[in-house]
Design brief:
The protein has six helices and nine strands, in the order ααβαβαββαβββαββ. By secondary structure, the protein is of the alpha/beta class.
């Protein structure tokens, strides 16, 4: 049976002992700045939300409404303990039921490069479909095209590279407005959906 958690269910306890319970880990400052750029009360889809710490909590603390998605049952259980009352679904991001509603923003930190190439490209299309005009996507993936073994799970990871991501985002009507790196050398893509943009032609 496929492991839609991309190996994270197998190492969930190890993850929870480290980053999964950290309140101010790498990426928190960058996500906080992004959250503060969103409209007050924005509705955010957090793909690969894990335990909810630290990033989902950053969004919640800024007064945003968050829907979390993670395919690891153990991490979702921790999310519900850490953030009771916050909507979260234990399902793959590829098939999440939350894609049947609109969002003001989508966050995917440390997730995109875990997915197969075709899934990455299709997920960008699905995000474009649910983002409201002016909506934001923030995700991380290396700027260079490369493959490697995830240090925690041992699973293969792959970045399609900045040129591919930029081209796909532009085709879908939400070009990147900013790219930057954090102290852990994670590369961020911040994209905004244009008003009047439609992803139908790029399916």
């Amino acid at each position: 049976m496929p492991d839609f958690s991309n190996g994270y269910e197998h190492i969930a306890q190890h993850f929870l002992a480290g980053r999964g319970r950290a309140a101010n880990a790498i990426g928190a400052a960058e996500v906080l700045a992004w959250a503060r750029s969103l409209p007050p009360g924005a509705i955010v889809l957090d793909l690969g939300s894990g335990s909810g710490l630290p990033l989902t909590k950053v969004l919640i603390d800024e007064g945003l409404t968050v829907y979390g998605v993670d395919a690891s049952p153990t991490l979702v259980a921790a999310f519900r303990t850490n953030l009771p009352g916050v909507a979260v679904a234990c399902e793959s991001v590829e098939e999440s039921s939350f894609f049947d509603r609109p969002f003001d923003a989508v966050l995917a930190w440390g997730l995109w490069f875990l997915l197969p190439q075709a899934t990455q490209l299709d997920l960008l299309r699905r995000v474009a479909d649910v983002l409201r005009p002016g909506g934001r996507l923030l995700f991380t993936a290396p700027a260079q095209a490369c493959t490697w073994r995830d240090v925690m799970t041992g699973e293969e990871s792959r970045s399609l590279g900045a040129e591919v991501y930029r081209a796909r985002l532009t085709d879908l009507g939400f070009p990147t407005v900013r790219e930057y790196d954090d102290e852990g050398e994670n590369h961020y893509y911040d994209a905004v959906k244009r008003f009047g943009a439609s992803s139908e032609a790029s399916r």
